[in-house]
Amino acid sequence: MTDRKPLRVLILGATSAIAEATARLYAAEGASIALAARDGTRLAAIAADLTARGAGSVPILARDLAAMDGLEAAFDAIVAELGGIDHVLLFYGVLGEQKDAERDLAAARAILDVDFTSAALWSLAAAKRLEAQGSGALVVVGSVAGDRGRQSNYIYGAAKAGLATLVQGIAHRFALTGRKGLHAVVVKPGFVDTPMTDGLKKGGPLWASPDQVAAVIRKAAAGSGPIVYAPWFWRFILLIIRLVPAPIFHKTKL
């Protein structure tokens, strides 16, 4: 027996494969889960599935999360519909085409606006609310691509690096409040077999499934951070990559 109240969770970018896998973990716990993403039809289908898996209320917000006008009002409205908030998880992003972004500044801006600017604003809106109530978790899904600039994806990587720094700063801000139940964490997956990575050759020990990454994210939301790699071994792989001297690194084609 337990008197613990079911969690109230907001998932931003809820139609991603990793987000859906994470939402199922919360549903199994009986959490109420608000889902936000562009595709209202897909959100409705996910909501029905989560309800069947044991979730409480599952309100949905069909919105382009990269649209920054009215962002804070939209955040407050969905939290009010949920009846409060305990965990906020941010999943959305775009890889974009590096070569296109190098040639076309509009394409570069589109990547940066989605992967950094709008994501940062949603994170700040969540941090404001969580700090005011003195409890809760902010979990932002970043990427190992942000650990070192590489010619193959440095625009995407730069956005993820900036977002990780922002979340680390929020984690520091939360820590200084002295509230033990208040934390922020950036989760950095490596290669994950999702539709987002369909353009890449898949297979091998470095690839993870959405369910594997979801388990790491759920654990991080319970209290860890401010940086978590998913799976864990990417911490050591990226440590090596960061330590390679530039003259040697610049001879690679990573």
The best one-word shape is globular
How much of the polypeptide forms β-strand, as a percent range?
15-25%
CATH level 1 name = Alpha Beta
Helix-strand topology string? EHEHEHEHHEHEEEHEHH
Question: Can you name the CATH architecture?
Answer: 3-Layer(aba) Sandwich
How are the strands of the biggest sheet laid out side by side? 3-2-1-4-5-6-9
Fourth-tier CATH superfamily name = NAD(P)-binding Rossmann-like Domain
Summed up, the helix count is 9
CATH topology: Rossmann fold
- Counted up, domains total 1
Strand tally: 9
Query: Could you report the average pLDDT, rounded to the nearest whole number?
Result: 94
User: What is the structural class?
Assistant: alpha/beta
Uncertain spans, ≥5 residues at pLDDT below 50? none
**Main sheet specs:** 7 strands, parallel
Fraction of residues in H or I helices? 40-55%
Rg, alpha carbons = 18 Å
Termini separation: 52 Å
Keywords: Oxidoreductase
InterPro entries: NAD(P)-bd_dom_sf, Sc_DH/Rdtase_CS, SDR_fam
Organism: Kaistia hirudinis
Pfam families: adh_short
